[in-house]
Amino acid sequence: MKQFMILYVADGSAEQHFDAMQPEAIEAMTAAWNDWAQKAGAALVDFGNPTMAVGNTQPGIGGYSFLQAESLEDLNTVLVDHPHTAMGGKIDIYEVIPAPGM
Predict the structure, then answer these.
(1) What CA–CA distance (Å, rounded) separates 69 from 52?
(2) Which of 6, 12, 24, 72 is most deeply buried (CB count within 10 A of its CB)?
(3) Which residues contact 59 (CB under 8 A, 6 or more apart)?
(4) What are 25-70's pLDDT values in tens digits?
(5) Contact 15, 65 (CB under 8 A)
């Protein structure tokens, strides 16, 4: 089983997006994410968290998750109708590979 790090890319920071949202919109977003997590099932290794750029880092990564799948094709099936893309964001996918000798 391969592991993948999923980065949620968006303009601005997650904190900025949350600050601009009404409570009802936050509730609907949370429900959409929880529905997706339930659909992802065992493929979801770590739900992750929102992130905020600090120091000299430019905003753009709004959060992360870790997933597992047999292949990229299988992973893409899990990412269909993901709430982040439904909100206009982009998802970057990185396969986690073991470091040699570790």
Answers:
(1) 27
(2) 6
(3) 11, 12, 13, 16, 52, 53
(4) 889 889 999 999 999 999 999 999 988 888 888 778 889 999 999 9
(5) no
